[in-house]
Amino acid sequence: MSVPPAPPLLLASTSPQRRAILEQLGIPFRAVPPQYEEEDEPGADPLERVREHARGKARSVADGADDCPVLGVDTAVVLDGRMYGKPVTAEDAAEMLDALGGRVHEVLSGLCLLTPGWEIVEHDVTQVWFRPLTARDIGTYVASGEWEGRAGSYAIQGRGAALVERVEGDYLNVVGLPAALLVRLLAARFAGVYGFG
Question: What are phi and psi of 177, to 5 degrees?
């Protein structure tokens, strides 16, 4: 007797990093751009923000889910309570990298998994230590263009790895999706369906 295929997750994201992680884990999915506007109150708690944005993204595509579980994720880089989003200019990127250099920052991700019957919102935190950065280090990295569209101005899975001294927690969370958290939720809620639990 053949096992029916697992229903694909509906990924509320256009992130190529998130798609690559799901492919790496062997989880079937369909990516759909979320119809959600991220609005941040000044002084908003970073953890509540990523959880709320993950929920908003997931809910924004749930109507077209066709009984598939929906996955929404939001990630932020935080240093001393301040969120570092995606830089607009090369100057922004250089300032962010200068602030992160020689320091430890947190990568926070909110994750929302929902079906017609239930909704779970969780989060994960990974600590990242940057080595001390010289002006040349920063200039060379910014010139690579890899900072574009990256929270905190770096991509750890690319040249940005050279900026990092140590990671504590889920490395894939820094890339863009808290994979350990997702696998844990799938194992608990869909035991065996996606090959976990």
Answer: -150, 125
